[in-house]
Every structure is written in C-alpha cells, then in structure tokens.
Amino acid sequence: MAPAKDPQLPISTPGVSPSLEEVIPLDQVEAGHCGLVHEVRAGETEIEQLQAMGVCAGRKVMLVKAGDPMILKVLGSRIGVSARLASQVMVVRCSGDMFGQS
Predict the structure, then answer these.
(1) 23, exposed or middle or buried, with CB in 10 Å at 0-12, 13-18, 19+?
(2) What is the per-residue pLDDT for 94?
(3) pLDDT of 91 strictly over 70
(4) What local confidence, expressed as pLDDT, does residue 2 receive?
(5) Is 46 inside a domain boundary?
(6) Among 7, 52, 53, 94, which residue has the least CB neighbours within 10 Å?
C-alpha cells in the first residue's frame, strides 16, 4: 500500500491555472531569479525527496547557481538539485526576485 500523501504538500498548486506559456521547467529559470512551483512531474520517490527539501507546489524557490547540481534557495536554505530533477519541477516565474524586489 502506498504511503498517505501529506495534504499540506500538494503535487500541483490547487486553484491555480496559469497559461501553458507561463509554466517553465525550473532549470530554465535564470540565476538570481525565482519561480513559484506549480507542479512536479516526477516519480513518487523524486517527489518525496523534493518535498523533504521544501520543494513543493505553491513554494517560491530561487535559482542561486545554474549547473549540475543546481543550487536553489528554499525557505532560507540552500540545496543542491540535479539538473535532471530540476527539469521536472514546473514553475511560474515570479514578478520580482524572492525578496519582493523588482
């Protein structure tokens, strides 16, 4: 039997339907910019790993450094994520950076 899903960590952002042009893979965000996680298109194990690091639908993440691994800032912490896994995290670009600056 599969483990119960945490209701506070959705796979996709509920009630949010951005146009397809606005949703991009996290690995296409420019360094220094942020994205709002819309959906994670990965297997259950990868989704659980990302959630354990704080990457889940509705969460803002900032790309600190591009490459492989990519360095992300999530909830004030820096984490390393493989470029392959980052390509499965679909985000909507934020209008400013993570700290509200334009």
Answers:
(1) middle
(2) 86
(3) yes
(4) 44
(5) yes
(6) 7
CATH number at residue 52: 2.30.30.90
Average pLDDT over residues 74-92: 96
The answer to whether 88 touches 11, Cβ cutoff 8 Å, is no
Give how many domains the chain has, as a whole number: 1
Per-residue pLDDT tens over the stretch 19-68: 556 899 999 999 999 999 999 999 999 999 999 999 999 999 999 999 99
Listing DSSP states for the chain in one string gives -PPPPPTTS-SB-TT----TTTEEEGGGSPTT-EEEEEEE-S-HHHHHHHHHTT--TT-EEEEEE-SSSEEEEETTEEEEE-HHHHTTEEEEE-SS-TTS--
Beta bridge partners of 23: 92
